[in-house]
Amino acid sequence: MISQKLYLQPITAEEAVKMAHEHQTNCCFIAGGTDVIVNKFQGNQAASCLIDLTGIVEMKQIIRIGKHLKIGATVTLNEIKNNPDIVQTFPLLIDAIDAIASPVIRKTATIGGNLLCENRCVFYNQSEWWREAVGYCLKCKGDICIASGGDKKCFSKFVSDVAIALISMNAYIEVVEYNSCYFIPLEEIYTGDGIIPHKLNSMTIIKSIHIPINEGFRSVFKKLRQRESIDFTSLTTAVTINKYGKIKIVLGGVDPKPIIIEGTANDTEELIRLATKKPRIVDNDVFLREYRKEMIGVFLNRSFNELSL
Prior knowledge:
Layout lengths: L5 E3 L4 H10 L4 E4 L5 H7 L6 E4 L9 E4 L2 E5 L4 H5 L2 H6 L1 H8 L4 H4 L4 H5 L12 H7 L26 H8 L3 E6 L2 E6 L19 E8 L5 E7 L10 E7 L4 E7 L6 E6 L3 H10 L11 H18 L3
Parallel strand pairs: 1-3, 2-3
Antiparallel strand pairs: 4-5, 5-8, 6-7, 6-8, 9-10, 10-11, 11-12
Helix pairs in contact: 5-9, 10-11
């Protein structure tokens, strides 16, 4: 039985996972805390056992390993932005980080935390008394999706800008579970379920992120939001073409998971059609559904022009 408030500080990822198993009914990993703490204040995060990952040295490193760049999951967004190797090799990642929150928040927020930030909705990410007054939705144990009016699925939007950029560059992650460690493509951890958006449970850690170095990536990042800082995304697009001419488009903010479209420079019109059709957009944002849908085509056309496609 854990105490009402428990704060643990492991020194290895394996120790952290073991601690999570010992307190699995009510625990949460924390690093920068920019998402977890806000959710606790809003009543959307109830864990009373916090496991601090910032003391794990190997999760705070940026190093080259063979043909990949390895970024520890607790490296802050500001540290990534100021890393000359990343600035030169992966400018798309820098563009994505520049679009996140504010400079002060980026000094604390971690890359792993951004990959696992909770899906958002204007009807869910409010104070507890506000949600009680308007009526609880599916994501907070209500019986209806307020945004869509349905009672089957939650369409809270995927908002990680870093994930959109990394997926477009074929990044994969190192995952640590109890007595196991494995590597998977980043996009595979997202479920498309607005209520439980990640396949990784509360006892699993993203230890590091790996990006291919020699793919010759050229990329364009764009983000729609009300203000140039602080606001979460209403639409994020990342368009990446590698040295073989393969295009990978990734969309965020318009579906409960990242939307991925792949093709070549010969079929850009079809890529735009698919990218506009595939997302499950509902009115759960400050911008109307129709406007966000229209802006997908606008952003992709601009991105293709910037890439001279």
